[in-house]
Amino acid sequence: MDGMPLRRARPLLGTVVSIHIDDAALAPSQAERAMSQAFDVIAHIGRVMSAHDTRSDLARLSQAGAHAVVTLDPHTVQVLRAAHYWQRLSRGAFNPSVAAERLCARGQRPGLTRLPHASSGLHALELLSDTTVKLRHAIQLDLGGIAKGYAVDQAIAVLQQHGVTRALVNAGGDMRALGHKAWPVDVRHGHQNLMDVRMRSCQTLQQQALATSVAAPVNPEFVQLRRFRKQVWHSVTVQAPDCMTADALTKWALQSSLLCPELRSALRQHQARMWRT
């Protein structure tokens, strides 16, 4: 029967990814095809940008020789381009190279080759085209700070290509809503599992994206890049038009002071809202 809501979930991106389609005009078979292909693109992005898989694009970047030209998946190049942007805008609060080095040192990124020298990170990488990059030397990168948000955005794009007009993609706290349906949202403190009363102004999500990042014992893979006398924030939630933007801003916001003019400016520029606990 047409118009029945459809929901599926799969273990992807190191979490459980769920897709909800609630589109009265869509035949069930069409919704199933759309959902299947949306999961496929998420799985593909997870494979090529995995820091755990020795066959991934990131693994090959850590194995490359000096001055190598490396062919990468177009999705990887798009995320690298975004990583350049956010590292520059945040003045290093978002830095996928330093994050990778520290996580490798802890043994948490087995897909990446351990490098003997301190990497210059993204500065050692030149984007030549939509599929090729040139390296001054091998580099370690962890794109987990934005790749999950990017995968959510790409899944939404696939659903739109199949004619879906109302849907929600949720990748373990990185989510994006398509269409005019208001989806209920419940954001909780990362270290206490208690709902944040300041999030009451964001109880539903409609035609927007939402991302939450946690700097607490429940998330041992978070890498603090800026040094404070103590960790100021436990968790950050950002609402923005797309999920990759929201994802990147949470990583920056976790590491900024209470009144950071550059962050506030970036939030306005990207039409984003922020809640920190």
Explain the overall architecture:
There is one protein chain. The strands form 3 sheets. The chain has a 7-stranded antiparallel β-sheet with strand order 1-2-6-7-10-11-12, with helices on one face. Strands 3-5-4 form a 3-stranded antiparallel β-sheet, with helices on one face. A two-stranded antiparallel ribbon has the order 8-9. It is α+β, with helices and mostly antiparallel strands and about 280 residues long. It has 2 domains: about 5-45 and about 145-275, T-fold (Roll), CATH 3.10.520.10; about 55-140, ApbE-like superfamily (T-fold, Orthogonal Bundle). A hairpin with a 2-residue loop joins β1 and β2 (about 15-20). The model has no long low-confidence stretch (mean pLDDT about 90). The protein is globular. The protein contains 7 helices and 12 strands.
Number of helix segments?
Answer: 7
Strand content: 15-25%
Structural class: alpha+beta
Fill in the CATH topology of the largest domain. T-fold
Quantity of strands, as a count: 12
How confident overall, as mean pLDDT?
88
Which CATH class of the largest domain is shown?
Alpha Beta
CATH architecture of the largest domain: Roll
Question: Gap between N and C termini, in Å?
Answer: 45 Å
Tell me about the largest β-sheet.
7 strands, antiparallel
Give the topology string: H per helix, E per strand: EEHHEHHEEHEEEEEEHHE
Radius of gyration: 19 Å
The H-level CATH homologous superfamily of the largest domain, spelled out, is ApbE-like domains
Helix content: 25-40%
